[in-house]
UniProtKB/TrEMBL annotation:
Its EC number is 3.4.16.4. Residues 713-727 have a biased composition (Acidic residues). Signal peptide: none annotated. It catalyses: Preferential cleavage: (Ac)2-L-Lys-D-Ala-|-D-Ala. Also transpeptidation of peptidyl-alanyl moieties that are N-acyl substituents of D-alanine. This is serine-type D-Ala-D-Ala carboxypeptidase. It holds the Pfam family Transpeptidase. Residues 704-727 are annotated as: Disordered. InterPro entries: Beta-lactam/transpept, Beta-lactam/transpept-like, PASTA_dom, PBP_dimer, PBP_dimer_sf, PCN-bd_Tpept.
């Protein structure tokens, strides 16, 4: 017995020594097994990057939400005075079905599945995610055993319907490990999904089997890296002006669809872009099968807006004589007949200038003879038609310049048989507004890494080859203005209150797809391509309305004018372009003010008609806005920063843009509430303030200026020709 037990003890001791020395048992590392038992890793979620407007206003961001889970393992409640797991699955499922979008039967199945498979916890899929704080509190107040909440992130679009086909949306997607992450499904959210997606961090620690941190256990933290922030050229205020105007036109005229673009005439920056039908990105309500951004990806036959570039070609070639007369009415191209929009009756012999103002198709046909077919098509391509603009968005359509037959070249002069995109029209118009310099449109201002502040991509305006001279561009501008001011002009409705405007209307037939065209007042595409103010164009606005339900007493340009006038007037006021005596306003090049005496430069600037806002009342200028070399309109506002104490100005009537500039230069903690123009401020003007003084400023949306009533009868043009030969 002694030898037997002694032998067993020796074997056991040998085993202990072996394990102690090697640290392994049955071929497995005991240290590794211990680590796997007690080591825990908790993920730190990374925020998806923000999408911001040009002023840093949020368009899309991640916001706090809650994910509901149910603890289903019974041993979690051991040594606890209250149950910490789901005690009654049936009762729990019955109650939860009233609060989340999931049937009671499915909830019960999820709970029972977790219990049967001895899972620590279960989730409820989409129905249990993205819960609001209020919904979480409602369920939490029920005190259901085992029901818990984890903070989560939800994609939020705080402006609702806002350039929705451009911005797009992101949705939560289940990953292979049962987790979820936001994935871009449309628009910029899809295009820049990789840049917007962050990298989660993690916390590594040791805990007991119930998850409690072990004494003296270390934590290792790897910080999450948030996704890149994308700053757009869009201006939130101008976009809201556009969305509001399109909503009103949609409700009033119920068109089949609409497209509109607002651009900076100097730089090609897209300030606003929208279309109808549209949708609410938070809920996807209104989202149809059409996911195309129609300003970029869809082509149209532009109609008479194309006559702008036919006119420019004629002037540049030296064959434009505004006082020369032609016989209006009809024009023959072999066996085809071109007709003016008044059923081919015309207005007798009229001048080419009057022909353009009346939007005569026949005048364009005669001009083509003067320009020459091939030369004209070359000009059209110089203006960027038939090729993508290169805007920083994918899937851009190129359009088609059809010059196969002589009739094709004639109809192209007035915008039929040629296809273009709205963004091509805007790009081409920059050449007219910029004295011949054509600017490439773009929507991405910069991409920034929020974790480091590094600018990943920084876009600047891009000049393209000038299709025409400055002299030609200025002549075209003047003639386009006459379509608004002349008694013969088809664009009289586009006259602005207090501002000059120029542009060209279009009333185009819509092709059926079989070579023929739809016909009828409610079946046309009505459009306008315009700029304002004429003396120094700041904005280019393109609006197209398809098949509006207009009354017999209404003209087709009416819904287009209501959108254009409302958006352009409000935007010019917001940009502080003064409407009074605008014809006397001339651009001023900003001098370098840094280092100069505050009092002296204030007197100099105001002598030139500029308004000055002084930040800090003492010594010399340390910062200025606009920067030296920038062009400023007379009566514009200049911000000058000195040193010393800051007296709060009277903000009443200030635009949000100017308020943002003042806030940035002063460094004051100004809380801005609302959109539009300043109506209230929490501290009176003249108050001495510091970086610790709380300041609240309330903005209100400007009232719309009523459209002037046009008493005289107005005419509209319709591009019409006989059946075209097919390819």
């Amino acid at each position: 017995m002694f030898l037997l037990y002694g032998g067993l003890f020796f074997v056991l001791l040998s085993r202990f020594v072996f394990i102690q020395v090697t640290g392994t048992a049955e071929g497995q590392s005991l240290a590794t097994k211990a680590e796997s038992k007690y080591n825990r890793v908790q993920e730190i979620p990374a925020s998806r990057g923000e999408i911001l407007d040009r002023n840093g206003e949020v368009i899309a961001e991640d916001t706090l939400s809650y994910k509901m889970i149910a603890v289903t393992r019974e041993d979690v409640s051991n040594n606890s005075s209250i149950p910490r797991h789901v005690v009654d699955p049936g009762d729990t499922a019955n109650i939860l079905a009233e609060y989340i979008d999931l049937p009671q039967e499915e909830i019960l199945e999820i709970l029972n599945n977790g219990i049967e498979k001895d899972k620590y916890q279960v989730e409820f899929g989409k129905a249990g995610r993205d819960l609001s704080h209020q919904k979480m509190l409602e369920i939490k107040s029920l005190e259901l055993p085992g029901i818990m909440f984890i903070q989560d992130l939800k994609r939020l679009y705080p402006n609702g319907t806002f350039a929705s086909h451009l911005i797009g949306f992101a949705l939560k997607k289940e990953t292979e490990d049962g987790k979820s992450k936001a994935v871009g499904k449309m628009g910029l959210e899809y295009i820049y999904d990789k840049a917007l997606t962050g990298t989660p961090g993690k916390v590594e620690y040791q805990s007991d089997t119930k998850g409690f941190l072990l004494p003296k256990a270390d934590k290792m933290v790897t910080d999450a890296q948030d996704g890149y922030n994308i700053h757009l050229t869009l201006d939130k205020t101008i976009e809201n002006f556009l969305e509001d105007a399109m909503n009103k036109a949609e409700e009033k005229y119920k068109p089949e669809k609409m497209t509109a673009v607002v651009a900076n005439a100097k730089t090609g920056e897209i300030l606003a872009m929208s279309q109808r039908p549209t949708f609410e990105p938070n809920t996807r309500e209104g989202l149809s099968t059409n996911w195309l951004n129609e300003a970029i990806e869809q082509t149209i036959e532009p109609g008479s807006t194309m006559k702008i570039f036919t006119l420019a070609s004629a002037i540049e070639e030296g064959v434009w004589n505004p006082n020369e007369k032609f016989k209006s009415g009809t024009y023959k191209v072999f066996d085809r007949t071109i007709r003016d929009h008044n059923n081919g009756l015309g207005w007798g012999p009229i001048s080419y200038l009057e022909g353009f103002q009346r939007s005569s198709n026949v005048s364009m046909a005669f001009l083509l003879n003067k320009i020459g077919d091939e030369t004209f098509i070359e000009y059209i391509r110089r203006f960027g038609f038939g090729q993508p603009t290169g805007i920083d968005l994918p899937n851009e359509a190129a359009g088609i310049v059809n010059d196969k037959y002589p009739i094709n070249r004639v109809t192209t002069t007035y915008g039929q048989g040629v296809t273009v995109t709205p963004i091509q029209m805007v790009q081409a118009m920059t050449a007219i507004a910029n004295e011949g310099t054509m600017m490439q449109p773009f929507v991405i201002d910069k991409i920034v890494n929020p974790n480091t502040g590094e600018i990943i991509e920084d876009n600047e305006p891009v000049e393209k080859k000038s299709p025409i001279s400055a002299s030609t561009a200025n002549q075209v501008k003047d003639i386009l203005e006459s379509t608004v001011t002349s008694d013969h002009g088809t664009a009289q409705r586009f006259k602005l209150e207090g501002y000059t405007s120029a542009g060209k209307t279009g009333t185009a037939q819509i092709p059926k797809g079989d070579g023929s065209y739809l016909w009828g007042r409610q079946l046309f595409l009505y459009s306008f391509l315009g700029m304002a103010p004429v003396e120094d164009p700041q904005l280019i606005v393109y609006v197209a309305v398809h098949k509006p339900k207009i009354k017999d007493t209404e003209v087709g340009s009416q819904p287009v004018a209501e959108i254009f006038n409302s958006v352009t007037e409000s935007s010019l006021k917001y940009l502080n372009i003064e409407p009074e005596n605008l014809e006397l306003s001339k651009p001023i090049t900003m001098p370098d003010l840094v280092g100069k005496n505050l009092v002296d430069i204030q007197m100099d600037l105001e002598a030139q008609g500029l308004k000055t806002v002084i930040i800090g009342q003492a010594d010399k200028v340390v910062e200025q806005y606009p920067k030296a070399g920038t062009s400023v309109i007379s009566k514009g506002t200049v911000f000058v920063k000195g040193s010393g104490e800051i007296q709060l100005p009277n903000f009443n009537g200030w635009s949000k843009r100017n308020l943002m500039i003042y806030k940035s230069l002063s460094g004051l903690p100004i809380e801005i509430i609302g959109d539009g123009y300043v109506s209230k401020q929490s501290l009176t003007a003249g108050s001495i303030v510091t970086s610790e003084t709380p300041i609240v400023v309330q903005l209100s949306t400007p009232q719309e200026v009523a459209d002037p009533v046009v008493e005289k009868e107005e005419t509209e043009e319709v591009e019409e020709t006989e059946q075209l030969p097919q390819d």
